[in-house]
Structure to design on (350 residues):
């Protein structure tokens, strides 16, 4: 089966080859305090800077998942106040996860069909971190770069945290416009699930230093201390780090990857009107995600499309949250092959 589920999703076709090399060369058993691991991690940091545009003075850490980053941010960079902007299930879950950890946690839910208008939002001046989801996987929306830039301009001294779980490594991100970025590797990175990436700015690092919160196992300060030594705090997913290294060595720079993703998004946009009984969930084209395509329809129509795809050897994503029964989702991640997309589209039209 070829998975078009929006994470975990289809991995790069060379992953089986890389896994065999990792086994044959003993990489699966290397110690994360060893020189061999440190050399590999140093190259991974360099590749993420070169291929994704991560600033050289930002700190990269590897954790278990993107959702773990919700807690790391609350427990390492915030003392009293957190403000969340969201329009879907994952942004809301982030806010809900933070509330037991940060006393003054507030959220603003905006209409996913209208987008976020910062002029309509009252964010407390003394808030410590503003949190937003760049690409909301539950409903197929994406925040445009100009909005993150505007947020930075309006709140230059406030930390900004961005959940880029289903967009990082698929679209270009202006990392210098926010302080904390995080994602998981099972989406646009095209790798097996089981590892998250947390990227931290110098401003956020200074805030963590000021708070000195080391009372949690995965306190960011502990992650940082080990990252400086080219190690990890926890025993890491060595295989995923190796696969990340190999995939980044072969990847084109993010602007080229984004161009491919957008071209395929446009092809999907031309194809979707041919499907009877379904339409885009997000009506404004400017608000749609380029990496997670959400379509709405009645349950019977959606079930028939799922069945057509499965018979042809493809897996579509089901709906999520309040859209669980009324939508299906299709991943448009970089690892998807053109012939697989053609095959799925042919199957859906039969």
């Amino acid at each position: 089966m070829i998975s078009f589920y929006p994470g975990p999703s289809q991995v790069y076709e060379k992953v089986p080859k890389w896994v065999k090399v990792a086994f044959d060369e003993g990489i699966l058993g290397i110690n994360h305090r060893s020189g061999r691991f440190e050399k590999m991690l140093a190259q991974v940091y360099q590749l993420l800077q070169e291929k994704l545009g991560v600033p050289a003075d930002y700190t990269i850490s590897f954790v278990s998942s993107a959702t773990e980053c919700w807690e790391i941010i609350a427990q390492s960079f915030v003392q009293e106040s957190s403000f969340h902007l969201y329009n879907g299930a994952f942004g809301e879950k982030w806010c809900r996860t933070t509330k037991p950890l940060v006393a003054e946690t507030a959220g603003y839910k905006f209409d996913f069909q209208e987008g976020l208008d910062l002029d309509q939002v009252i964010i407390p001046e003394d808030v410590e971190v503003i949190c937003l989801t760049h690409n909301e996987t539950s409903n197929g929306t994406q925040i445009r770069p100009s909005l993150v830039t505007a947020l930075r301009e309006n709140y230059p001294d406030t930390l900004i945290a961005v959940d880029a779980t289903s967009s990082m490594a698929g679209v270009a991100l202006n990392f210098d416009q926010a302080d904390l970025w995080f994602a998981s590797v099972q989406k646009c990175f095209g790798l097996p699930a089981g590892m998250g990436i947390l990227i931290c700015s110098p401003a956020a690092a200074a805030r963590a230093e000021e708070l000195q919160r080391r009372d949690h196992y995965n306190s960011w300060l502990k992650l940082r201390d080990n990252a400086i030594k080219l190690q990890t705090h926890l025993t890491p997913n060595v295989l995923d780090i190796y696969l990340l290294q190999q995939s980044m060595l072969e990847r084109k720079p993010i602007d080229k990857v984004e161009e491919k993703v957008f071209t395929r998004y446009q092809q999907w946009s031309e194809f979707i009107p041919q499907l009877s009984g379904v339409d885009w969930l997000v009506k404004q084209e400017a608000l749609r995600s380029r990496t997670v395509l959400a379509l709405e329809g009645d349950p019977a129509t959606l079930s028939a499309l799922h069945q057509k795809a499965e018979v042809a050897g493809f897996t579509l994503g089901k709906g999520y949250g309040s859209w669980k029964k009324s939508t299906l989702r299709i991943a448009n991640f970089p690892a998807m092959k053109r012939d697989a997309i053609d095959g799925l589209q042919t199957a859906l039209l039969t």
User: Anything to note?
Assistant: The chain has two domains: 2-9+252-349, 15-250. The first helix runs from residue 15 to 24.
